[in-house]
Amino acid sequence: MKVLIIGGHLSPAFSLVEELEKEKNIKIVFVGRKYSTEGQRTISAEVKIAKDKNIHFRNITTGRLQRKFTRHTIPSLLKIPVGLIQSFIVLIQEKPDIIVSFGSYVSTPVVLIGALLGIDIISHEQASVPGLATRINYLFSKKLFLTWEQSRKYFKNQAKLEVIGNLVRGPFYKKSYRIKKQLTEFLKKGREDLIFITGGNQGSHFLNNLIFRNINFFTEHRVVHQIGLANYGNDHFIAKNIKEANYFQVQYLQAADYAVCLNESKLVVTRSGANTVWELILAKKPSILIPLAISGYGEQQENAKICEEAGFGIVIPQAEATDNKVKSSVETILKNYNEFARNAEEFEKTLPKDANKKLKDYILRYTNS
Prior knowledge:
The chain is of the alpha/beta class and 369 residues long. It has 15 helices and 13 strands. The chain folds into two domains: 2-165 and 352-368, Rossmann fold, CATH 3.40.50.2000; 172-348, Glycogen Phosphorylase B (Rossmann fold), CATH 3.40.50. The strands form two sheets. A seven-stranded parallel beta sheet has the order 3-2-1-4-5-6-7, with helices on both faces. A six-stranded parallel beta sheet has the order 10-9-8-11-12-13, sandwiched between helices. α12 links the parallel β12 and β13 (313-315). α3 (73-94) crosses α4 (108-116).
């Protein structure tokens, strides 16, 4: 049996890979981008992970509908037919039994061509507000799995839907880890509260700049700062030149390293992507969330609202995320930490569980039927 996995939401996608690898006679093909962002030549996180895990990886180059006009808009649109042609070639060569989509613009050409070729497709949506790619892919999918119950309202055919929660990487649940020596040493030293700052795999130039400007405030604590793979505004160089003893910078965290930083931190300052929010809830972690202002359909704003309404997150719109506002929010959480932590613990109990196994079991039943 061959399963082709496609999509830009890497945490749940590679969580499924981990589950399927436990089964005999399953071959996995992962399709994704070679580069992390348009206009740059930074190797994408999916290439790095696939290489580390020795997973068969196929690259496609495709375009997307951008939310604002930039110098990359026209070239991006011209890449759409290229992505369709490459998807056709990949699917003809690989001949998968089933396609599993985890959204983002890179998934849509594969789903469209897969449907034309008669290959069965299932999809998973991480966000509370489905993105454009999932709304399109849903039309061609046999089944759409959802993370949040409130996402049902965006789709007409309820029989196609099943709420299972989000898939989580294996290291998140482990009690022991093998992490890089420098990070281990940093986490062990000092008694100050640990603050974990991350803009995700690709990073956030806005968050990075916020930390750089206020490094003296943040290093009153201990800080692990995931800069991201995309080197916006020369962020990598700036971070490397910060010599504060209480500051640890890293471009990209492997799953185990990420899990350690998240679980051992006192609080998190972050964006509010779907996977980030889900893992914050699982870790029962008080957080400051600064949603990406231009996220599709206000997805990140809605994700962040889940944490805020549950009482363990402070949401700051990017336009209002001044230095003083962010610093006062850090102080508010630390001052009222027991209340924030208690709310997080109570909300975590309400989550659907075992999404990894549920999706794997469906694939096994489906392909054997």
